[in-house]
């Protein structure tokens, strides 16, 4: 159901049961799948690919050109997965020649005033609270939570099932399953509450906790700690993910808390 006061470019591909409220603008080269609701005063620009049953609230701007001075008009996209909610005044920029797309997964919640810059990848079930600002080329893995008014530096990676406290400055990579807090941002334990909510057993939580005890509390450097974990702990999906994440970090991972 499209309101007569909305503008929809004739080349846009809109499924039959998409609802587009008054005063929204849909540019050409846009695809919106079935069941999605586009609220009033939304702007969806060229290159947007929006999945099923999404909700996009007033003031959002999807697929504007990147805020990157090197951008030269390349054909790039924003891809948004099914069942994702985008609240008021969220901005999501298109990709550049780096990845050619900005990708938002399924069942993601982007609260009001979130900004997602070019070439980011936000995986499934992530929550970014109000006014989180994400610079270009950032990767956020599944089930991560970023607290309100946090700023994420370009090229940072945030691991799966991690939680970052509100107002954080995220300059380094945040390993999976961890809690990150304070300034400068540091390790504050594992996200045990979130893991329990998602069905992780006490045994698995204890395993993850022991891994991070070795990494952050044993006094060893990361290379020695990871070698010890690999040698002495039974291989598992979680163990191997942590090892791979930290060894693959290009910016370096967050430190432990400094003594006060």
Word description of this protein:
This protein has two domains: 7-137, Hexapeptide repeat proteins (UDP N-Acetylglucosamine Acyltransferase, domain 1, 3 Solenoid); 195-256, Udp N-acetylglucosamine O-acyltransferase, Domain 2, CATH 1.20.1180. The chain has helices at 192-197, 202-217, 222-232, 237-247, and strands at 7-8, 13-14, 19-20, 25-26, 31-32, 37-38, 43-44, 48-50, 55-56, 61-64, 77-80, 85-86, 91-93, 101-104, 109-110, 115-116, 121-122, 127-128, 133-134, 139-140, 145-146, 151-152, 157-158, 163-164, 169-170, 178-181, 186-190, 255-256. The model has no long low-confidence stretch (mean pLDDT 96). Strand 26 and strand 27 (186-190) form a beta hairpin. It has 260 residues and is an alpha/beta fold.
Brief digest:
This protein has 260 residues and is an alpha/beta fold.
Key features?
28 strands, 11-stranded mixed β-sheet, elongated, 9-stranded parallel β-sheet, single chain
Number of strands: 28
Radius of gyration: 20 Å
In CATH terms, the superfamily of the largest domain is: Hexapeptide repeat proteins
Query: What's the quaternary structure here?
Result: single chain
**Beta-strand content estimate:** 25-35%
What's the layout of helices and strands?
Blueprint: E1 7-8, E2 13-14, E3 19-20, E4 25-26, E5 31-32, E6 37-38, E7 43-44, E8 48-50, E9 55-56, E10 61-64, E11 77-80, E12 85-86, E13 91-93, E14 101-104, E15 109-110, E16 115-116, E17 121-122, E18 127-128, E19 133-134, E20 139-140, E21 145-146, E22 151-152, E23 157-158, E24 163-164, E25 169-170, E26 178-181, E27 186-190, H1 192-197, H2 202-217, H3 222-232, H4 237-247, E28 255-256
Parallel strand pairs: 1-4, 2-5, 3-6, 4-7, 5-8, 6-9, 7-10, 8-11, 9-12, 10-13, 11-14, 12-15, 13-16, 14-17, 15-18, 16-19, 17-20, 18-21, 19-22, 20-23, 21-24, 22-25, 24-26, 27-28
Antiparallel strand pairs: 26-27
Helix pairs in contact: 2-3, 3-4
């Amino acid at each position: 159901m499209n309101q007569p006061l909305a503008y929809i470019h004739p080349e846009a591909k809109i499924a039959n049961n998409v609802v587009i409220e008054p005063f929204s603008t849909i540019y050409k080269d846009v695809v919106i799948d079935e069941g999605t609701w586009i609220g009033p005063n939304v702007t969806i620009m060229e290159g947007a690919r929006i999945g099923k049953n999404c909700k996009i609230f007033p003031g959002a701007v999807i697929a504007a050109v990147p805020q990157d001075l090197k951008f030269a008009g390349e054909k790039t996209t924003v891809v948004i997965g099914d069942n994702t909610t985008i609240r008021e005044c969220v901005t999501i920029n298109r990709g550049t020649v780096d990845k050619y797309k900005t990708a938002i997964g399924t069942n993601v919640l982007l609260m009001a005033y979130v900004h997602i810059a070019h070439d980011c990848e936000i995986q499934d079930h992530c929550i970014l609270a109000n006014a989180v600002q994400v610079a270009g080329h950032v990767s956020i893995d599944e089930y991560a939570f970023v607290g309100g008014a946090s700023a994420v530096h370009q090229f940072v990676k945030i691991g799966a099932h991690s939680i970052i406290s509100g107002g954080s400055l995220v300059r380094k990579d945040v390993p999976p399953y961890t809690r990150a807090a304070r300034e400068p941002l540091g390790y504050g334990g594992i996200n045990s509450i979130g893991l329990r909510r998602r069905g992780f057993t006490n045994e698995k939580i204890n395993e993850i906790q022991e891994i991070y005890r070795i990494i952050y509390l044993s006094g060893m450097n990361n290379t020695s700690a990871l070698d010890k974990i690999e040698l002495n702990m039974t291989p598992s999906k979680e163990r191997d993910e942590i090892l791979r994440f930290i060894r693959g970090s290009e910016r370096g991972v967050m430190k432990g808390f400094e003594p006060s």
